[in-house]
What we know:
Elements: E1 2-7, H1 19-29, H2 35-56, E2 59-65, E3 68-75, H3 82-99, E4 107-113, E5 117-124, H4 145-155, E6 161-168, H5 177-186, E7 189-195, E8 203-210, E9 214-216, E10 221-230, E11 240-250, E12 253-264, E13 267-275, E14 281-291, E15 304-312, E16 316-321, H6 332-340, E17 344-349, H7 357-360, E18 365-369, E19 374-375, E20 384-385, H8 388-399, E21 404-408, H9 423-427, E22 430-431, E23 443-449, H10 457-471, E24 477-483, E25 487-489, E26 498-499, H11 500-512, H12 523-534, E27 541-548, H13 557-565, E28 568-575, H14 584-593, E29 597-600, H15 606-614, E30 622-629, E31 632-633, E32 650-654, E33 657-658, E34 665-669, E35 680-687, E36 690-695, H16 713-724, E37 734-741, E38 744-751, E39 765-769, E40 775-778, E41 780-784, E42 787-793, E43 798-805, E44 813-819, H17 832-839, H18 862-865, E45 877-882, H19 884-903, H20 912-921, H21 933-955, H22 975-983, H23 988-994, H24 1001-1016
Parallel strand pairs: 3-4, 3-6, 6-7, 9-15, 16-17, 16-18, 18-21, 21-36, 23-24, 23-27, 27-28, 28-29
Antiparallel strand pairs: 1-2, 2-45, 4-5, 8-10, 10-13, 11-12, 11-14, 14-15, 19-20, 22-33, 24-25, 24-26, 30-32, 31-34, 34-35, 35-36, 37-38, 38-42, 39-40, 39-43, 41-42, 43-44
Helix pairs in contact: 1-2, 2-19, 4-5, 6-16, 10-11, 10-15, 12-13
Amino acid sequence: MNYHIAFDSPWYLCLLLLLPALWVAGMKTLAGLGKTRRLVALVLRSVVLIALVLALAEAQLVRSTDRLTVIYLLDQSLSIPEAQRRAMIQFVNSSIARHRDAKREDRAGVIVFGREASVEVPPIDDEVPVPMSIESLIDRNHTDLSGAMKMALAMFPHDAAKRVVLVTDGNETLGDAQTQASALADAGVSIDVVPIQLEARGDVSIEKLALSSDVRRGQPFQLRVVLNHTTPAGDAAPPVKGRLKVTRHVGEIEEVVTEEAVTLEPGKKVYSLTQDIEDPGFYTYEARFVPDDVEADELSQNNRATAFTHIRGRGSVLLIEDWAPSEKGRFDHLVQRLRAEDLEVTMMASDRLFTNLSELQNYDTVVLANVPRSSGSDTSDVVQSFSDDQIKMLVANTQQLGSGLVMIGGPNSFGAGGWTGTELEKAMPVDFQIKNAKVEAVGALALIMHAGEMADGNYWQKVVARESIKALGPQDYCGLIHWNGNDEWLWNHPRGFGRVGEMRKIMLRRLDGMTPGDMPQFDGSMLMAAKAFQNLPDAAVKHMIIISDGDPTPPSPSTLALLRRVKVRVSTVAVGSHGMLGSNLMQQIASATGGKYYVVKQASALPKIYQREVRRLARPLIFEDKNGIKPFVKYPHEMIKGVADDIPPLTGFVMTTLKDNPLVEVALVSPKPPGEKNATILAGWTYGLGRAVALTTDAGQRWTTGWTGWANYDKLFSQIVRWSMRPVGDTGKFSVATDVVDGRGRVVITALDKEDEFLNFLDMAGSVVGPDMKPAGIEVRQVAPGRYIGQFDANAAGSYFVMVNPGPGHAPIRTGANVSYSAEFRAEETNAALLEQIAALAPHGGEAGKLLTAPAAGEPLDALLQMDPFRRDLPKSTASDDVWPLLLVFCSTVFFFDVLNRRVHLDPAWLAPYTAWVKEHVFGRAVEKKPDATMSRLRSRKAAVSDELAQRRASARFEPEADAAVADAPLAADAGATETQSAAPPPPRETLAAEKKEETYTERLLKAKKDATKRRQ
């Protein structure tokens, strides 16, 4: 591994030319520091400047290495036989074990792919064998080479050369492998290719089921089935015998069109049938081939094909009613009157709902007649509900495919029917929640959770609690009690209840972290809830739902009495987690409080039960007046044309909130309660390509009993339905054809006017709904006189419903396309041309990849293993790390010492004690103790003072004072001795007495002043 320095902005290095100027200026400005300190300051400043310039130049430490990373991409799609897929895994394991250089720390990784790519083994410098059974979960019905290469590019480490080994048959059904391979080569990645040689095999497939997608009623049309019998090249394969069955589906009805024995010689064969249908509708045809000998047919996935056609007729209506015995048949009168108005009406109960979007294509409008989202009896086995997918189908059928959608009111519809917060609410011209706080439509719900012993109990508790909270209105209250060592409120402690509108997000977030335990008794939690209910005087409906296995101790009679006094109904849901089904205790609690009791066998039924129970809180949404309410006309809408003047009074409706949207058209409004936004009776709007209508009262069962005998009853409801319906009519001058080629659907429209002249410059717009129920727009362009073409993605198998709006004055065109099976099952040989192009791409500075010839299934892999994917024919990898952040830190540190050097004088003698300590304690050397420097200086000073005093005494003369008393003269005899004694040193006392005191300057000045004063006197 080699290192060198590089710069991202090398021009900043020119600033190093300032170094001489720095020294010249510093020699003058730093002269006062002394020679040594000035030199140190200049060196430190130079280092600071150099580090700063290198940081500005963005210095980087570059490492170059010959390490290599190889990522194997394994095609695991179903177009490759299982035996060859296993051989691919053996090849990878053997290749890594033989060629990877552990000393150079080479890395190897494995990505498997089909429709999507998944990392089976990340790039590591070790020999981790790939398991023979792939652990990654991928969709094998498609092949996306580009997605696998894109993932490999993202996985490569930056400090190694890069190579991809692509093991595939080259038959891609998604993406653009050629473009992505070019991107890899531009990024310096070498690509080796190991083609999987698909063996020629005998197979029978239904290539196409062709029929017209749009037919007039009673018009004969042709249905063609194209079968293809492929055989190994050059082989005289025997014919394949089997049965060809063609069926026709409309709604839930299946009819066999033909079933016959066929014998297929090698090649293609076309079977043709003539069809003539009188009943309008949307029909789906299915052709299926079943071979007599399964071994003669390699793939069974391509033995089925589907297609559909639309038989045009007069308007058709689907009316969905509640399946519950107490509600069924309540709309028979409405159905009879609509049929009398020449409308085709089909009734559907909510327990036998549609299962796919094609079933809805038979109808021009769908009517939800007082049907709740969840309904049934009091046992879980018969609780039915609209699934989220079915609700999405209803909305897509209106928004994307132009069908009508009508919701008729009643105590089980709109917000009172549990539709709040669903996709259906978005499609209606009114919101199902009451957003006006002045309207007293408030409910309170308490949830008591005890399902810890049920399988996946915690998960299902969160699901049902989430569904309950989502269904409540913003003015409603909600509280949840769970066992966490004690009975605890999950939010808003200690009050427990909180308004949903203010806390909905908080409630849902708290649910994610809820981990309830095994509740030992009911009394504590139920008493907490009962006391909390007492603090909600504005709640019109109070409800409690308990989910449990029934093993906690029962609540006390006083707690049940308090719940009855506060008017709380308790519904209980018994889950059989102890091997028994049902609970007497749970049933007693529900009976004592007027609630409902449910027994659950499967946890998946819990959300349906909770959806139904939450509806009980929606009763305040219902506004009733026994004296009658006379609706008034807000806007003379087409739906009430000719009947607006004599609409009979009604006694109730479901309150909603009018959407704040200019597209909403309100026809009828109730004068009560105050506020028109919450008193809408009839409103409609255009939603996408279709129309939606909200009639918040019923159709004569409970609140409009006086309407059934009204002369304009038929006219009102037929006008409501007809206004919402998908436009129908003869589209005879528009011919439509659809097909799917290479994963792209195409709709071709030829437009003619009444004189058979081309219609040009039409502003066509379209949309398509695929098998995933996700709508997508279609751009329709004119490509020739009267010819328009639109395209859309059609990669997934299934039905694609297309709606094209030709523009004003023309009825919408409904058509579609069908992909019977993935293109994965159409491939018959390896795509060698694509693989050769990929292998020929050469990365920058390296050689092109290798293209090998893979052995057939069952043959040894020795030839493949001769190729070394870890060969060194790529430039060394370089990796760089930014150094400039460290340079800035270094620059700051050196600048600190520069300031310290200039501001503080450092004496080397200060370090002597520390040096001695290190020598003694770290290196263990004995250090000679020197006398204290302070005492030595004191002794030296004392000796100097003593010498000075001695010199003064020696040079001083003895001068007696003038007024001293003269001693008696010594004897003559002693005269000589006296002189001798006078020459000797005087005694200390006499010497000190005789010594003159040295006068200071001040004393001499004062003395001179005194003398001058005396002389003047």
